[in-house]
Structures are given as C-alpha cells and as structure tokens.
UniProtKB/TrEMBL annotation:
Pfam families: Cu-oxidase_2, Cu-oxidase_3. InterPro entries: Cu-oxidase-like_N (IPR011707), Cu-oxidase_C (IPR011706), Cu-oxidase_fam (IPR045087), Cu_oxidase_CS (IPR033138), Cu_oxidase_Cu_BS (IPR002355), Cupredoxin (IPR008972). It comes from Apilactobacillus bombintestini. GO terms for molecular function: copper ion binding; oxidoreductase activity. This is Copper oxidase. The keyword Signal does not apply.
Length: 511
C-alpha cells in the first residue's frame, strides 16, 4: 500500500452530528460485566451443489439473555435475536425459503443485494404469519457485506428494533485471492452496531421510546451483546461494520488513535485501501476495516469508542506475525460512462420530525415517483434542504441498484466513498451527485435510512422496466397492510398504532 496518508477526520458536518439533536440520547458507559461478543454462526445451507445454494430463513419471536436478570423479548432470523450470517457465493443460483413464524406480517429486504423487485423484499412483498415463500435468484455481484432486515410499511423501524436484522456476506473469486483476513469468527467478524433502551424487566418498549426523528437508546448493543469483548488471536482483524441502528450515527475510533485500513464500503471493496483513525457511519452504511494489532502484546486491551464512549474491547492474546501487504488497487469500477446526454434526476429530501418528505411528498405505496429503464444510466442529484444549523444528516438509500458517488457539492467525495455504494449520508444544505443504474427490473424504494423517517414518509419508489421484457407490476396498498396488522394484533384498524402513522396524521395526510 503506497498511499500512506492517514485521515483523522469524520468528514461530515459537525454542526449536523446527531449529538446536537434536541432529542439526542447520549450513549452511556455500560455497568454490565464484560461479555464475550456474540459472533453469529454462519447459517448452514440446507443443501449446496457446485451451482446452487439452498437456505431457509425463519423470522421468529423469542427471548434472549442480553442483560443479567430477565431475558428480553426479541425477534430474529433462525434465532431469537438478529440472525445467523448468510453467505452467498457469486455465480451460484440461490434459493431461499423465507418463513414467517412471527405474530405479524413482515418482509425480507436484502439490503444491497442486486436482485429484481419481487426478490428485494420492499413493502410490496409481505409474507403473512405462518406463510413461506421461495426466492430464486442468481448471485452476481462483487464480494461485500450486505444485510437482511424487515421492511414492511410503515412498521420497518419497530421490526428492526425488535431484532430483525442480520449480516449477509457475498464472496467472489477476486476477493478470495487478496491478502485479507477471512477466517470467519476468528479474524473476520460482522460487527452490527445498534443501541437500545432497556425498560423494566430488561424489556424494550418501542412505543415508549418513539421519536419521529429516530428511536435511540443509551446502551450500545453490538451483535446483540452489551459491553462486549473480543479475543484477538491474529495480528490482523477484519471487522465488517454495519450501522444497524434506527437512527444513531457511529463515530468510531480506537484507543491510542490506532489507525485502521478501510477496505470495503457498502457494495464492494474500495478501489484503494484508505487509512483512518476516525470513521463515521450513518444508518445502514457498511465499512469493512482491517485493524493491525502488531503494536500490542498479550494482555493489552484495545478499546473501540463511539464519540467518547467505550463500546467494545479487544483483548489481545498471542498471535503469529502477519506483515502481509495489501495491493494499492483492490477493486476496479466497471460502471456505465456518463456523457453530456446522461439524464439528470433531481430529488429533494426535506424536513425533520413528522415533516420529512421526498420531493415534498410522503410515501404512497400506490404512486410511482420515478421511472428508469434497466441498463440505462442516470445522474441522480440528491439534495438535503435541512439547514446547516439545526439540520441533520439524512442517510439516503436506494434499493435495486448500486451507485457511484460523483461529488458532494461539486467537491470530491470522501476518501472512502469509492467502490459501489447503496447508502450515503447527505449533509444539510448539500447536494450529492450519484451515478445510478439498475441491472434488474421491478419496483424499488429509495428513502432516508433513519428508519423512522422512512416509515414517516421520507420514501419514494421507482419503476424499473426491462425494455426487452415489459412487465406489469403489482402494487400493494396501505389499507390491505393496515387491515392485516390490525387483525394480527387483535385491534380495530382505527386503534392500530404503527410508528410512521403519526407523521402522516400530523401533516393531515392519508397514509
Ligand atoms: Cu432522514
């Protein structure tokens, strides 16, 4: 790695950090005894051949011992909280049976997976309690860390809060030959960053904690573990960081300002490795980093902080020397060219609290907000019209595609915004330009990934047509979903209370 520059900057606008929000919930130092980090097992395929992989993913309710005392009622995939890590190999045909054993409908959204709209798992594809469905697709995208989470409108935030989120890892032949840690569970682990508030008897209470700008809790929870430590037994450790929180931004740094190397972002390796001492993640963003513990000896404790709160410990043990060097180039972008005829699509993210909107509208399941042909490339100019003073960073996410970040207000993107991305934090009063193309047809959502903003209507949808195979897409309607939720919860539909509803009510809008 020839570029020795080490960045010590979070890059985003400091006045827009969540720490300045009126409703900010600071993280608190945990007084729980250190617990070994839960590293989710890899989900075992039901069957795997040279060409195909078969999985079953079950959304289920359960109880989890998170804190001393009473177990917490939680939801998860194939386990009581979060889920096992799902591995897809590039080039294989994937068959996933998704089963819903929850008391209410859900969807299975594969965040970052390059698939058609019917597989993507947005709000038009509910799976009702007791039902299952088989998803068939080919995995054809670069190695990356993706995730699976629930996405039923307008209850995405509450379901993710209950625990419906898990890491998905795509492997390919290119990544496989790079000198990177990849011994899962030993020197290559997912790190799902979330926060929760524990109420009486260690329970979560989404409605008590509800905030239209995003639900937060004072306790950092990493892979479902409070005050975790990880036993380091290798010189280099690869962390697949995911901001899986509903609202929280993570501003990460290690003790001793230990530098680390970011190797991957949302949807691929970065084009070049970048060295940092500080890294900010907004909701749903991923960063794979490699930490080199060569300067430490057995018995040392390296601490990971968010802002000034310790959230995780790395206990150093004996390890073998590993001075392998990364190549300068990790990934080559092969994206459609932009010409002066490339269409430009402007969109505006506005508001905070209940007033959030995209292009002055709240999400409507039955309205198509944009169209783009499969295979064609457009420049999306996305503006956050919040004020620099008092405004917030909105993490903008698109389903069904990756994008390349062209610039931020005409300036170069941040140094780790190379490679393929699907989520980008946009500062107040800033416009980012993205190169956007779709490889699959369908209806896809684009929205703020502060999940309460998404439920509150800061979301829109695009219809992507395959010009060679025109299709008619079925759109769900909100009444059908609301009636189903009401029935499942045993209440009249007028008495149904789902997170995003208050945002529409307050604006006198129908959901
Ligand atoms: Cu937002």
């Amino acid at each position: 790695m020839s570029n020795q520059q080490v960045y010590n900057d979070y890059f985003f606008y400091e006045p827009a950090f969540n720490t300045h929000d009126g409703g900010y919930v600071p993280l608190e130092v945990s007084d729980v005894a250190p617990q070994k980090l839960r590293v989710p097992e890899l989900l075992k395929p039901d069957r795997e051949t040279d060409t195909d992989m078969y999985y079953t993913v079950i959304a289920q309710a359960g109880e989890t011992n998170i804190l001393p005392g009473k177990p917490t009622k939680t939801w998860g995939y194939n386990q009581s909280l979060l889920g096992k890590t799902i591995l897809f190999k590039r080039g294989k045909n994937i068959h996933v049976t998704v089963k819903n054993e929850l008391p209410e409908l859900t969807t299975y959204h594969w965040h970052g997976l390059s698939v058609s709209g019917d597989i993507d798992g947005g709000c038009h594809t509910p799976v009702y309690p007791g039902e299952s469905k088989v998803l068939n697709f080919k995995c054809d995208q670069p190695a990356a860390t993706l995730w699976l989470h629930a996405h039923p409108c307008p209850s995405t935030a509450e379901q993710v809060w209950h625990g419906l989120a898990t890491a998905v890892v795509v492997k390919d032949e290119h990544e496989a030959i790079l000198p990177l840690p990849r011994n899962y569970g030993v020197d290559d682990i997912p790190v799902i960053l979330q926060d929760r508030r524990f109420h009486e008897d260690n329970q979560w209470d989404y409605h008590a904690d509800y905030d239209p700008d995003g639900v937060q809790g004072p306790t950092a929870m990493i892979n479902g573990t409070i005050n975790p430590y990880f036993d380091v037994t290798t010189q280099k450790l690869r962390l697949r960081l995911l901001d899986g929180a509903n609202r929280r931004e993570w501003r990460l740094h290690f003790s001793d300002d230990l530098k680390f190397t970011q190797i991957a972002g949302d949807g691929s390796l970065l084009t070049h490795p970048v060295q940092f001492t500080h890294l900010m993640l907004t909701c749903a963003e991923r960063a794979e980093i490699v930490v080199d513990f060569s300067g430490y000896k057995p018995g040392d404790d390296v601490i990971l902080y968010s802002d000034d709160v310790p959230i995780m410990h790395f206990r150093i043990h004996e390890f073998e020397k590993d001075d392998s060097k990364l190549p300068d180039t990790l990934f080559t972008m092969d994206t459609p060219a932009v010409t002066k005829n490339t269409p430009v699509h402007h969109i505006v993210m506005s508001g905070m609290d209940e007033e959030v909107a995209i292009d002055d509208k709240k999400f409507n399941m039955e309205r198509i907000d944009a169209k783009q042909e499969m295979g064609s490339c457009e420049i999306w100019e996305v503006t956050n019209t919040n004020d620099c003073e008092g405004g917030m960073v909105h993490p903008y996410h698109m389903h069904g595609c990756f994008f390349e970040v062209l610039d931020r207000d005409g300036k170069k993107p941040y140094p780790n915004e190379t490679g393929l991305k699907d989520t980008i934090g946009i500062n107040p009063n800033e416009t980012v330009r993205l190169k956007v193309w779709f490889d699959h047809p369908g209806i896809f959502m684009y929205h703020c990934h502060i999940i309460e903003h998404e439920d509150g209507g800061m979301m829109a949808q695009i219809q992507v047509d395959d010009p060679k195979h025109p299709q008619k897409f079925h759109l769900m309607d909100m009444d059908t979903l609301m009636n189903a939720f009401a029935k499942e919860r045993g209440v009249a539909v007028e008495d149904l209370h789902l997170g995003g509803m208050s945002c529409y009510d307050k604006m006198n809008m129908k959901m």
